[in-house]
Amino acid sequence: MASDPPFEQSYNHLFEALSEDQKAKQVHPETNSFANNEIYELPLIDLNRLSLTKSDQDECKREIADAAKQLGFFQVVNHGVSREIITRLQSEQAKLFKHPFREKASERLLDSSMGSYHWGTPSATFLMQFSWSEAFHIPLRENCLPSSCYLRLNRYPPCPKSSKLFGLVPHTDSDFLTILHQDLVGGLQLVRDGGWISVKPNPDALIINIGDLFQAWSNGVYKSIEHRVVTNPRVERFSAAYFLCPSNDTIIHSCNQPSVYRSFSFEEYRKQVQEDVKSTGTKIGLPRFIIK
Ligand SMILES: C=C1C[C@]23C[C@@]1(O)CC[C@H]2[C@@]12CC[C@H](O)[C@@](C)(C(=O)O1)[C@H]2[C@@H]3C(=O)O
Ligand SMILES: O=C(O)CCC(=O)C(=O)O
Ligand SMILES: [Fe+2]
Fold first, then answer.
1. Which residues form the Fe2OG dioxygenase domain (predicted)?
2. Is the residue at 168 inside a domain?
3. What is the span of the domain harbouring residue 111?
4. Whose CA is nearest to atom 14 of ligand 1?
5. DSSP alpha helices (H): ranges in the chain?
6. Whose CA is closest to atom 25 on ligand 1?
7. What is the pLDDT along the chain (292 residues), one digit of tens a residue?
């Protein structure tokens, strides 16, 4: 049965290459998987301590800063978003993605002021640049003027094709920071000590990761770490990511000297990322802005 979205039909040129490659190398789809990594529990930070004594607050802040410097990722509990809200978001998200592909891809389901629909990777020229997923970007400008924050609702359909495909290709986030909730399926991986580790899901926690703008702003102290999502052959997966972004004209300066990165506006940064993705299939990101 064809997948929804119709990845194989629309990206036929990429998938033909996969079957040829598998034939040539006699690779079974389940071998060489990305999924057999160490399962790692992110540093867990109880935000409740921010409302306790000064020493509790200081300890909590220190833990956040340490995790942001070393790993670029941590998870928080007692964050103030109730279980009920998260469950409602998950059920609305599942309902939205259940619409047939032709409705999701048409302008009618969400008009453009309410968000945009993305699926696969139009710029991919080979399979390693392809993401087996679909997403809605919901702008949150009304509530967060004048920023360009948005919510990205991700769905990763089961991928019977090959465990060598990504649900979402390796990338860093282009924002200040991202707040992510993932369901229990698992599949998020990040780079630690030069290798990939899998993040253990915790339904009560929100995952926070440092984005590129925070890394530039902190002059490289807080780390925007490369992460990816691996596919699952049988189970669909959902996640929701909130991207904390400034207004387009905000200039990002390093907080001290000598600065590693030249100053740039958020608009310039986003345009450069999009241009690179379009022309090379891959995001280059901050290395483009290093002062030589
Ligand atoms: C193909 C790509 C688009 C993207 C950068 C990437 O190389 C891989 C991930 C994509 C993503 C996902 C989260 C954010 O929406 C985003 C802005 C980011 O930082 O990484 C997008 C990138 C994009 O749409 O330009
Ligand atoms: O689905 C996930 O766990 C991660 C999603 C992500 O990295 C993104 O949307 O930028
Ligand atoms: Fe991301």
1. 147-246
2. yes
3. 7-289
4. 173
5. 7-10, 12-25, 54-70, 83-98, 101-105, 141-144, 212-217, 266-280
6. 274
7. 778 999 999 999 898 867 665 655 544 444 456 777 789 999 999 999 999 999 999 999 999 999 999 999 999 999 999 999 999 999 999 999 999 999 999 877 776 667 899 999 999 999 999 999 999 999 988 666 677 899 999 999 999 887 789 999 999 999 999 999 999 999 999 999 999 999 999 999 999 999 999 999 999 999 999 999 999 999 999 999 999 999 999 999 999 999 999 999 999 999 999 999 999 999 999 999 999 9
Yes or no: say if 226 and 194 are a contact pair by the CB < 8 Å rule.
no
Q: What is the CATH number of the domain that holds 28?
A: 2.60.120.330
173 within ligand 2 shell (Cβ under 6 A): yes
- C-alpha distances in angstroms, 213 versus 51, 89, 267? 28, 27, 12
How many CA atoms are closer than 13 Å to the CA of 157, on its beta-carbon side?
Answer: 20
The answer to whether residue 209 is domain-embedded is yes
pTM: 0.94
Is 257 part of a structural domain of the chain? Answer: yes
Residue 227 Cβ < 6 Å to ligand 2: yes
Tell me if 115 is assigned to some domain: yes
Residue 224 beta carbon below 6 angstroms from any ligand 2 atom: no
Whether the upstream peptide bond of residue 201 has omega within 30° of 0, thus cis, is: no
Helix, strand, coil tally for the chain in percent (to 5): 30, 25, 45
Nearest-atom number in ligand 1 for the CA of 150 is 15
* Predicted ipTM beyond 0.95: yes
Query: Which residues are known catalytic residues?
Result: 237
Using CA positions, which residue lies closest to atom 5 of ligand 1? 283
